């Protein structure tokens, strides 16, 4: 409930690394997010500080990331932010990880062609008996149909 969900817009900095673990597929890559600002003295856009995030993708997202992303691709990543600090080689190291919920190409900087992953056909689907199409029309004389299908009601006698 108290998680920090962020949306980061940047570029893929490393080739996605895929691993098939006992808990399911997993992939990770580094995301570079560089701020840009207008330098009023030069009257041009200038790159600011770059933040790097390690992006983690699980299950089907991991498989799709590995097949879809390359170094340099502009992407948008939405996920849970996890910041860790640990001593390493006598120094304090801080890392920021994103456990991705959704990842997509940034279409403001290019085009992309979406493809659904192929589904393996199962024997159970082929062996399932075909069910007849339902009859959506209400037979005449049965209540609940449209007024064109219903029999006319008798006129009221006064």
UniProtKB/TrEMBL annotation:
This is Single-stranded DNA-binding protein. Keywords: DNA-binding. Gene3D superfamilies: Nucleic acid-binding proteins. Residues 108-158 are annotated as: Disordered. CDD domains: SSB_OBF (cd04496). The lineage of its organism: Bacteria, Bacillati, Actinomycetota, Actinomycetes, Kitasatosporales. Homotetramer. GO terms for biological process: DNA replication. GO terms for molecular function: single-stranded DNA binding. InterPro entries: NA-bd_OB-fold, Primosome_PriB/ssb, ssDNA-bd.
